Amino acid sequence: MPDLLLELLSEEIPARMQDRARADLERLVTDGLKEAGLEHGDVWTFSTPRRIGLSVEGLPERQPDVRQERKGPRVGSPDKAIDGFLRSVGFDSLDECEKREAKGAEFWFAVIERKGAATADALGGIVTGAIRAMGWPKSMRWGGSAFQWVRPLHNILCLFDGRPVAGSFDIGGSEALAFNGTTVGHRFLAPDEIAVQSAADYRAKLETACVLVDPAQRRDRIEAQAGALAASLGSSLREDRALLNEVTGLVEWPVAVAGRIDDAFMDLPPEVLITSMRSHQKYFALETADGRMAPHFIAIADMETGDGGKSVAAGNERVLRARLADAQFFWDQDRAMPLRKRVPALEGITFHAKLGSVRKRVHRIQELVGIFASSVGADTDQAQIAALLAKADLTTGMVGEFPELQGVMGRYYAINDGENASVADAVAGHYAPQGPSDVCPSNPVTVAVALADKIDMLASFWLIGETPTGSRDPYGLRRAALGVIRLIVENELRLSLVGLLEKAAVRASELEPGQLAAKSDSVPEEAAHQAFRFIVDRLKVHLRDRGVRHDHVAAVFADGGEDDLVRLLTQVDALAALLGTDDGENLLTGYRRAANILRIEEKKDSRSYEGAPAACLLKMAEETELSKALGTAAAGAQRALEKEAFGEAMTALAGLRGPIDRFFDAVTVNDEDPALRENRLLLLSNIRAVMDSVADFSRIEG
């Protein structure tokens, strides 16, 4: 069956946009094929800096024939209704329609049969629509065109069954790009026009013309070449998948070359060397067998040179030398002023227009750390010093040049100033964890400052109403909430989270220390509870990703009065353990039976049944047994909950399984005697109350 090949040749497409663009192009073209009734086989997409495209295998030569039946008006309807129906189906008269009986009356029916058109005739519109519908983060116009695309389009190769598809793409003005069967090779190494007949022919001829169109193939070649070159230097590549993916999108014909870092710069912190090479030049860093920075780098050129890459390497070394000279200047200049003297300058950096400067935020974090540092095992003085210094490196030249090094450079400068090692580590680590794969701090001082930093973020932004909406989260509050969860859970911190959020919100509501803004006293409390609910929502997502059932979480979190995350999660684990046993499963069945009977009878009686059943009305042994078992379980569960032995609390409930089963086997709840009926309904309400004292079992599904 014939194949479709499409290539859009343009000026350089930014590497960060290529993956999404390939996915968009595939979606738009395959959606168009589906709408046209064209089944197909495998789809392969490709991209380089100068081109993006796809091939679709196994397309039919023609669209399928279409037979459609349309029901029209009743026979004998007014001429206006008949004429409207005929126009809608494209018929000239009722002679082309059929009479059929439906629902006891005769109606006109139109049977529309349309032969499938040639696939080649449909492809031009599908391709044109896909190109126009592609979305780009940024786009541009060129020449006299009104059409916008990521970069100027130069050529559209569009082949079906080895022949160019008829048609063109109008980019506005007087310009139109006709679909054709040609492309060009590498801009410098093989710029001549190339005629192709198929996807396989396209790949082979472009590779001969120094273009690897498959990103995976380019990525593999870069990794292999760079790895071999590093090994020849007695080093290895420092793993950096993001950089590898970016460089893959920057070249069509990757050629790895090695350069040397001047010895004068090797005393710079390795993070500075790596960031300088990575951010500006897209060089790969190398490391020695013991993990230290090697004095070499690998650059990926998009050219082959006659001298084996020596001139390319020399040019890269010159550029890097200038970059590192700037970094060396910042490094020397920044260390001349201690971090403590930089703190006042934070007053000149606005954190948020409604929340004041970064200096004010630092003051809030310091106060918050002072409240709970000791309860997480941190030295309060060290934690407050770390909080004071945490943002000070924002005023340094190095962080101004490389913002991604904030915190990292603060640690180096703190060590240079002679600060305590725990303080220096906290300055570097207080931003963590910044994602699900980021390492969570465990040093108590770092944990205290990191937690205070994120709690201040959440409380402050909820206080001023700047909260995430849909996919928008400009201040990273979802990330901050996940950070709070991981810091608390992974370090098993026993904290009243709502209390801390409220204290943070109160401090954020102060225009100056001690001066409350003109707001209701309830506003910080409300903001704290809203922020806590947001954290709980993120916790539910976090637990779901760990495989914890959402209904187990809902059963434990139903009360809403608990804000100790460690205690809550221990309860969730204990509940899951109970429900994973036969006793737990049967106990849940008994609970549901009791709850269902109560719900029906309470609705019928227009009252609720609450309170202790009368012992004198327990006529059957099974009633007496259940009543005693409920008392024992309630007392045992209460004692276990008080000492946070949630497994014991679940075990106490598990003891109810037998008595509940025997009660329902032997006892008729809706007895003819109203007194006995009421007493037995009270007994059922006690089942519900005792079990709900541990978790809301009504929320358990299945």
Query: What proportion of the residues form beta strands (DSSP E)?
Result: 5-15%
Rounded Rg:
36 Å
What is the β-strand count? 20
Main β-sheet description: 7 strands, mixed
- CATH architecture term of the largest domain: Orthogonal Bundle
Give structural attributes.
single chain, 702 residues, alpha+beta, seven-stranded mixed sheet, four-stranded antiparallel sheet, 25 helices
Short description:
By secondary structure, the chain is of the alpha+beta class. The chain folds into 5 domains: 4-61 and 118-208, no CATH class; 66-114, no CATH class; 215-335, no CATH class; 340-547, Hypothetical protein af1432; 575-699, Isoleucyl-tRNA Synthetase, Domain 1 (Orthogonal Bundle). It contains 25 helices and 20 strands.
Please tell me about this protein's structure.
- The chain has five domains: 4-61 and 118-208, no CATH class; 66-114, no CATH class; 215-335, no CATH class; 340-547, Hypothetical protein af1432 (Orthogonal Bundle), CATH 1.10.3210; 575-699, Isoleucyl-tRNA Synthetase, Domain 1 (Orthogonal Bundle).
- Helices cover 50% and strands 14% of the residues.
- It is built from 25 helices and 20 strands.
- Helix 10 (358-372) runs antiparallel to helix 17.
- The longest helix has 26 residues, at 310-335.
- It is flat.
- Residues 512-521 have low confidence and may be disordered.
List the helices and strands and how they pair.
Layout (H helix, E strand, L loop, with lengths): L3 E7 L4 H21 L7 E6 L2 E6 L9 E9 L4 H11 L8 E5 L2 E10 L4 H15 L19 E8 L2 E2 L3 E5 L2 E6 L1 E3 L8 E3 L3 H10 L6 H18 L3 E2 L3 H8 L6 E6 L9 H12 L2 E4 L5 E9 L8 H26 L3 H4 L7 E3 L3 E2 H15 L7 H10 L7 H5 L6 H9 L4 H9 L14 H20 L13 H14 L6 H12 L1 E3 L2 E2 L5 H24 L4 H8 L7 H15 L2 H24 L15 H22 L3 H9 L2 H10 L7 H19 L10
Parallel strand pairs: 7-10
Antiparallel strand pairs: 1-3, 1-7, 2-3, 4-6, 5-6, 7-8, 9-10, 11-12, 13-15, 14-16, 15-16, 17-18, 19-20
